[in-house]
Design a protein that fits this description.
single chain; alpha+beta; 2 domains; six-stranded antiparallel beta sheet; disordered N terminus
């Protein structure tokens, strides 16, 4: 009888613990990006005289997140743009496409891309000029949707860095694979040991 009670209490505790996190879906992903005009992750301005400005994309390393299932949530990082503008004049960037690629490893393996358009200019005076990358579409991989935000970077000095952000929407029912917290595992282990000790004393005395 006492053993059944222990099993029941343990099951209730585990159900409550899992129920609190089951509404989130685990997603693991990384990103990379290429400018169409250069074929690399870096693009230069149209200024051929002097030192041209450059814009470099640094992809997001492998990242594990747990957004709620069924609707877009953010912001999450999709990588970083680094603008270097050493020139003393106005540097224009011709209209160019930028391809963002998302590679997903959880909950399923897959990769897909979305194309944004880039345009703008920078000025040697901080706070003037801007480069805009506009995204109008999303990416879907194995039911998980990625929504990159339209991105604007305004130079604040010789080197300016800004994060490309967006939302992630796991498909309904995407499981959470994050390990249980260490404190929860320790508590459940202690609970089991205490119950075993009581059983041992009870049957030992019989």
């Amino acid at each position: 009888m006492f053993l059944r009670k222990i099993h029941t209490w343990a099951a209730i505790a585990l159900f409550c613990l899992i129920g609190g996190i089951s509404r989130a879906g685990t997603v693991q992903y990384k990103t990379s990006g290429i400018f169409a005009s250069s074929g690399t992750d870096t693009i230069g301005s149209d200024n051929n005289a002097g030192l041209a400005s450059t814009l470099k994309f640094i992809g997001q390393p492998l990242t594990l997140v747990n957004p709620p299932n069924g609707f877009p949530t953010g912001p999450f990082s999709f990588g970083t743009f680094q603008l270097t503008s050493p020139d003393l004049g106005i540097d224009e960037f011709s209209l160019s496409n930028f391809t963002l690629t998302v590679t997903q490893s959880i909950p399923t393996n897959g990769s897909d891309s979305v194309v944004g358009s880039l345009s703008g200019f920078v000025n040697s005076q901080p706070g003037t000029g801007a480069i805009v990358v506009t995204f109008t579409n999303s990416i879907t991989i194995g039911g998980v949707k990625y929504f990159p935000d339209t991105f604007t970077i305004v130079p604040s000095g010789a080197v300016t860095t800004r994060t490309l952000e967006g939302a992630i929407q796991p498909a309904p029912g995407t499981p959470t694979v994050t390990p249980l917290p260490t404190s929860a595992l320790a508590g459940m282990g202690l609970f089991g040991i205490m119950g075993f000790g009581k059983l041992r004393r009870k049957f030992g005395a019989a």
